[in-house]
Amino acid sequence: MCRWFAYISNTEECLLEDVLITPKHSLSKQVHEHYLPKLLRHDANEITTEQEITVRNRLFNVDGFGVSWYTPARTDFGLGSGLRPALYKTAQPPLHDLNFQSICANTATKCCFAHIRSATATPIVAVNNHPFVFGRHAIMHNGVVADFLSISREICKLLDDDTYANIDGGTDSEHFAALYMTFLTGGSGKEAWERQYSVSEMRDALHKALGTVIETQKAILGDKAAANSLNVAVTDGSQLVAIRARNHQVEQPPSLYYSTTAGITLNRKYPDHPDGSENPHAQKDPSEHGSHVIVASEPSTYKKEEWELIEKNHCVLVGVDGKVRVEAIPMASGWNSRTSNF
User: Fold this and answer.
1) What is the mean pLDDT of the chain?
2) CA distance 321 to 227
3) Out of 124-128, 139-143, 166-170, 329-333, which region has the weakest mean confidence (pLDDT)?
4) Contacts of 105 (CB under 8 A, 6+ apart)
């Protein structure tokens, strides 16, 4: 499976290099080395089997990289209001890409999405890399929409024209992103992509997209419909919603964690270092750091106590005020599948 990292704050910028490159377990290095503390089964206190951890978390992520970071540049030049996402994608591993390294060394932002890809059935080309951008909204996914080719035509019928036309690649993830945007905007087209919606509306649109995929699979495939893994994050640059979901009674989705303190450890302006080594650049007290939330497939600091594992079928919501809450995702009766894929 893929890996991803999200950072959001209403006051504190992060340097992309600090969060995506510097740590020895940064996202750009999660190609074949993985750190997966606290992984448990959905059943009470039973440790997830080594095979299950491996099959959804330890694949080689060598099929490309993408990063979006939010900037006020267009607002500063009178081209709209609020933050908008800049986007960079490459089909090669990120540490081999000098352009990516230069961007990270010289870019600070209050919101970023980054994603490293392990391809399933679609070509290894830049357009198939996450995040996917619709106006001010960015979306990324880790997991799989099961039997996507069997349901893709029906899913496409639900998309408004502008959203369908914005699909550049062929992945299940990008089509899921388009479905989310159709539900978020009520199918109102690209002008609606520039609007800001409430965090509750974002959550509800994600849940509706999840349910639509499952119900479409069951309508077409019946009992043969396999379980989906849908670790999805969405943002408008000021708010964020992330879900960790799998519609299987026992099996876990890929790993997903969140933190409200690791941003201090990751920021070179503050004492400490993500690897536990000395930080010669520190110039501020930790109490000065602004509120923030990180959601990531794997922790990227040496302090595992900074990270909380998001439970299966739960979501993290971050509002414009920076406050974070965790909620269960309602799973309708009949959504669970007995069939596994990977």
Assistant:
1) 90
2) 35
3) 124-128
4) 15, 16, 17
pTM: 0.91
- Give the Cβ contact number of residue 25 at 10 Å: 16
Both tokens of residue 195? 């609007």
User: Could you give the CA distance from residue 203 to residue 329 in angstroms, rounded to a whole number?
Assistant: 9
Residue 113 identity (one-letter amino acid): F
Q: What is the pLDDT of residues 186-205, one digit of tens each?
A: 999 999 999 999 999 999 99
Provide the pLDDT for residue 96. Answer: 83
Is residue 154 packed enough to be buried (19+ CB in 10 Å), middle (13-18) or exposed (0-12)? middle
With beta carbons less than 8 A apart as the criterion, state whether 262 and 294 touch. yes
Nearest-angstrom CA–CA distance, 204 and 10: 23
Q: b/e for 258-283, b at 16 or more Cβ within 10 A?
A: bbbbbbbbbbbbbbbbbbeeebeeee
Quote the pLDDT of residue 108.
98
Residue with token string 């377990």: 25
CA distance 122 to 140: 16
CA 335 and chain centroid, separation: 23
Distance CA 89, CA 75 (A): 23
CA angle 326, 56, 112 (to 5 degrees): 50
Nearest CA to 178 out of 227, 143, 133, 142 is that of 133
Q: What is the pLDDT of residues 272-285, one digit of tens each?
A: 999 999 899 899 99
Alpha carbons 155 and 217: distance in angstroms, whole number: 10
- Asked if residue 149 has pLDDT above 60, the reply is yes
Which of 178, 185, 169, 77 has its CA nearest to residue 129? 169
